[in-house]
Design a protein that fits this description.
The protein is α/β, with parallel strands linked by helices. It is 31% helix and 19% strand. The protein has two domains: 2-134 and 339-495, FAD/NAD(P)-binding domain; 137-205 and 262-336, FAD/NAD(P)-binding domain (3-Layer(bba) Sandwich), CATH 3.50.50.60.
Length: 504
């Protein structure tokens, strides 16, 4: 098939590599000037690093370089992805600085994809634009007056040059990872740095008690099992049944350690609720230097607060909080998340992708119910997003090869709606329109591999209960399925329908 992929982040590049391996003619369209998605230099804010260690935040058959630090920088992740694309020979399939303007289904099947460089027809379309592609910037009263007075108001992904904050008063909106990362980075050059947080989040130190890497707590099957999944299996039934007291004790002890270690009581930054909320919609790793900055006064946090308007006082730009506090603000950076949109699809197609509540109705976070020749990759954001996207790409390739026995549409609809209702209730509506599966990365991966008749074996699964996930353990099932469905070339002719059973 001729396949178009929209987006060149982890999802788009792994899709290109796997689908090329399945014998397809693939083109990747990327509107940024480089590959990388959220890690592109065009949207990389100062202080950006991974939340995962380099061992778990990689693709299965291409580990991050040994010389990388444990938590790589945004620039290093982008370089890793570019190296991945070059290593597997797909970099020349990526058209950077090429925005997809529209994609229209053709009557005979397939799509007409119109980009900033022209139009072309393809047999299948993979949407891998990411769920963090359309920045959300709150519409604050007074913004025009604020900007006219010399103030700058933008999203964190649009603030990419540290020097733009030199000797300026900076206000950061939000308390997620991006907000805290950028606040710490800007203190190196800003005159003042203020964080306005509507809601405090629980944050996990990189090392508990200064010793235990957090990956041993959250990036294992046991860590995932501490949170109740839609359908409990195996040992999870004990953790949320007869062993509930043990599970609650573990969570309580960890919460107490975090409060002590980060000195949250002393700083007045103990969040409402319990540590269990850490998995409500996202996990947030504590930014190194953030709480130290609050303690020494270089970062001022206004908790449970919102900006009511932007304005001008004495000729200088300011931010006015809802409680009447006025904060000097030459620069206001919004770490306020993203919209989940697919703007290049028509309204008629988009309406067929979502339910009445605006949630994406995608079986396995991949397959629409009624839109033909279309799949999504990377719409299963998780703790292990690279691996989740890679297995989703494998699912897509196998599906196109006819290797998945799908339930009837009615059954898929019922399953997806049941899952969406659970997601909405569990996250209190903060489920990114059904695309955020945190913290259930491995559950999602297991379900996709089960559809493919593949797995990593009982011994490896048992290891993952106690040790962090090793993406390399998933390289063999990916290789087996690629070999099984790769077209056979015989007598100079390609037979794409022939199946090969991989040895072993």
């Amino acid at each position: 098939m001729r396949i178009a992929i929209v987006g060149a982040g982890f999802a788009g590049l792994s899709s290109a590599k796997i689908l090329t391996g399945f014998g397809h003619d693939v083109t990747v369209f990327e509107k940024a000037p480089d590959v990388g998605g959220v890690w592109s230099r065009s949207r990389r804010y100062p202080g950006l690093t991974t939340q995962n260690d380099k061992g778990t935040y990689s693709l299965s058959d291409y580990p991050m370089p040994r010389h990388y630090p444990e938590w790589p920088s945004g620039e290093q992740v982008q370089q890793y992805l570019e190296s991945y694309a070059r290593h597997f020979g797909i970099l020349d399939r990526v058209r950077t600085s090429t925005e997809v303007l529209s994609a229209e289904p053709r009557a005979a099947g397939g799509w007409t994809v119109t980009t900033s460089a022209g139009a072309e027809d393809v047999d299948h379309l993979v949407v891998a634009n990411g769920i963090f592609s359309d920045p959300f910037v709150p519409d604050l009263p007074g913004a025009d007056e604020f900007r006219a007075a010399g103030g700058r108001y933008c999203h964190a992904s649009e603030f990419t040059v540290l020097e733009d904050a030199r000797d300026r008063d900076v206000v950061v909106i939000g308390y997620g990872k991006s907000s805290c990362d950028i606040a710490v980075a800007l203190t190196a050059v800003s005159r003042t740095t203020t964080v306005v947080a509507r809601e405090l989040l629980w944050k996990m130190p990189r090392r508990i008690a200064g010793a235990l890497n957090y990956k041993y707590l959250l990036l294992t099957r046991l860590g995932e099992g501490l949170f109740r999944y839609a359908r409990l299996v195996g040992f999870e039934k004990f953790l949320h049944g007869a062993g509930r007291g043990v599970r609650d004790g573990m969570m309580g002890s960890l919460q107490g350690q975090i409060v002590r270690q980060l000195e949250l009581t002393k700083l007045g930054l103990v969040p409402e609720g319990s540590l269990e909320d850490i998995a409500r919609s996202t996990v947030s790793l504590a930014t190194e230097g953030f709480y130290e900055g609050v303690a020494d006064g270089t970062i001022d946090v206004h908790r449970d607060a919102v900006i009511a308007r932007l304005g001008v006082r004495g000729g200088e730009p300011v931010a006015e909080l809802a409680d009447g506090t006025v904060v000097p603000a030459d620069v206001v950076v919004a770490g306020t998340g993203f919209h989940q949109r697919v703007p290049f699809l028509s309204a008629e197609v988009r309406d067929r992708l979502v339910d009445e509540r605006g949630n994406f109705e995608l079986y396995r976070q991949i397959l629409p119910h009624t839109v033909a020749d279309l799949t999504f990759c990377g719409y299963n954001s998780s703790f292990l997003s690279p691996l989740s996207a890679e297995v989703a790409a494998l699912w897509i390739g196998t599906h196109l090869a006819g290797g998945i026995a799908l339930p009837p549409v009615a059954e898929r609809r019922a399953f997806v709606q049941e899952r969406l209702r659970w997601m909405e209730e569990r996250t209190r509506g903060k489920h990114a329109r059904g695309t955020n599966i945190i913290p259930f990365s491995l559950h999602n991966i297991d379900e996709m591999l089960s559809d493919l008749g593949e797995g990593i074996g009982r011994r490896r699964r048992f290891t993952e209960w106690l040790l962090p996930v090793d993406p390399g353990a998933y390289a063999r099932p990916i290789a087996r399925l690629t070999a099984r469905h790769r077209p056979v070339v015989a007598g100079g002719r390609t037979s794409p329908g022939t199946r090969l059973r991989a040895a072993g």
